Amino acid sequence: MYRAAKRFLNTFKRKSNTDKRLITAIETIVGSKPLNLYLYRLATLHSSVANVDNRGYKESNERLEYLGDAILGAAIADYLFKKYPFKDEGFLTEIRSRIVNRESLNTLGKRIGLDSIIQYDKNHSSKLSHKSLYGDTLEALVGAVYLDRGFSFCKSFIIEKLIIPYFDIQNIVESDVNFKSKLIEWAQKENHSIEFEIIHIKTEGRHKEFTAEVTVSEEKKGQGYGFSKKKAEQDAAKKTLQLLGLIEKE
Amino acid sequence: MYRAAKRFLNTFKRKSNTDKRLITAIETIVGSKPLNLYLYRLATLHSSVANVDNRGYKESNERLEYLGDAILGAAIADYLFKKYPFKDEGFLTEIRSRIVNRESLNTLGKRIGLDSIIQYDKNHSSKLSHKSLYGDTLEALVGAVYLDRGFSFCKSFIIEKLIIPYFDIQNIVESDVNFKSKLIEWAQKENHSIEFEIIHIKTEGRHKEFTAEVTVSEEKKGQGYGFSKKKAEQDAAKKTLQLLGLIEKE
């Protein structure tokens, strides 16, 4: 009985120390203390150390990651929409995907110090499966902040504490990813022939919509669309790179 | 001078009638009158009839569509997260994509009566390019409601006025899309041989992650992942269907 009590108190003490560190970290990262600490505990709990409860339900940060991903997308969509009132949706989509992608979120997660509060199985985990550990946890954190404080607070947190301090948007806008030259480079390196062809032009009122197709070593690959030949080719190149697994799908 | 004035007044009158109809429609669909009517005018303005302003900037509903798409995703993520507290993120992602896809949004757009308020070029537009006219406008409307009334109102609008009345979520959850049998069906019809193979098993702590690969007529197609062989095969079948253009990419 005494032992059980001691064990219970130890557990409590241990948790309490972890919690204290978590509270401090959240206060630093988010700018406010957690209201509902449970959410932040969950956000930092990787599935590799999650316990399965009586119902067979495994509690980890994966559900919060799903939620946070959507909230992050919405907050950044809103931010870019207002920041660039005269840019079209293609531009906004492109810039958002340059900000929110696995690699950049992972880097951001590390930079804000999530490594000190994530709980995961350090022994049984291969490097591969953790290449998005910080990014995933960052998304889960966004989910927790959203549930804890609501959309408006969470949006400010995302913009003021994550985007503005860590992303040089102007630089991101100016850096032009050239998918076509990337694909040509790859083809040359791998000894593949490569061809770009405009296979269809649709006249739509005052506009023309072009369809481009890429052929790699006689094999038809990605098709792309755009209101100029150049844009259609870029899109086709991008889709081909995705098909070939050379860049990630959005 | 008199003519110019008359023309001006006619323009005003015409606009005013269109606006009146728009206000009534928005009140019916959203449940409240617009605060900023401009947003709703823009949301219902298809690019086929959009004017280019002095700066060369074309004003249509496409930017609002981009914003609305993100807000819709966030609102439904939140709704499903809370509705299914013990379901994993794979389930939540799947159900959301069954609710929010081009086809279902398009049907929904028609059902709530967007056809009566969308302004588009009825002469110069092929059917093809308008297969998502209503769905796109619906997203733009969500964007307008969000900017006009804020996230919380917009979320309620989405859930109470769009999702609950028009989607049978229980039915959506229970309908199991079987990609594997869909793919096998297709292969038989098209006289292709088809093979499913587990090509990799990764042991991750207490879990195993399977990688399945589909081969169609000796040609390697989609690879899929899952925590069971069945799930990996379903995923590989789905990706193959996407590669073959038989189902849409998410």
From TrEMBL, chains A, B:
GO cellular component, as recorded: cytoplasm
Catalytic activity line of the entry: Endonucleolytic cleavage to 5'-phosphomonoester
Cofactor(s) it depends on: Mg(2+)
Protein keywords: Cytoplasm, Endonuclease, Hydrolase, Magnesium, Metal-binding, mRNA processing, Nuclease, RNA-binding, rRNA processing, rRNA-binding, tRNA processing
Active site: 69, 139
Residues bound to Mg(2+): 65, 136, 139
Domain RNase III as annotated: residue spans: 23-150
InterPro entries: dsRBD_dom (IPR014720), RNase_III (IPR011907), RNase_III_dom (IPR000999), RNase_III_sf (IPR036389)
Location of the DRBM domain: 178-246
Its EC number(s): 3.1.26.3
GO MF, one annotated term: rRNA binding
Cell compartments where the protein resides: Cytoplasm
GO biological process, one term: rRNA processing
Pfam families noted in UniProt: dsrm, Ribonucleas_3_3
Stored HAMAP family: RNase_III (MF_00104)
Entry function: Digests double-stranded RNA. Involved in the processing of primary rRNA transcript to yield the immediate precursors to the large and small rRNAs (23S and 16S). Processes some mRNAs, and tRNAs when they are encoded in the rRNA operon. Processes pre-crRNA and tracrRNA of type II CRISPR loci if present in the organism.
Assembly and oligomerization: Homodimer.
Family: Belongs to the ribonuclease III family.
Name of the protein in its database record: Ribonuclease 3
Lineage: Bacteria, Pseudomonadati, Bacteroidota, Cytophagia, Cytophagales
Gene for this chain: rnc
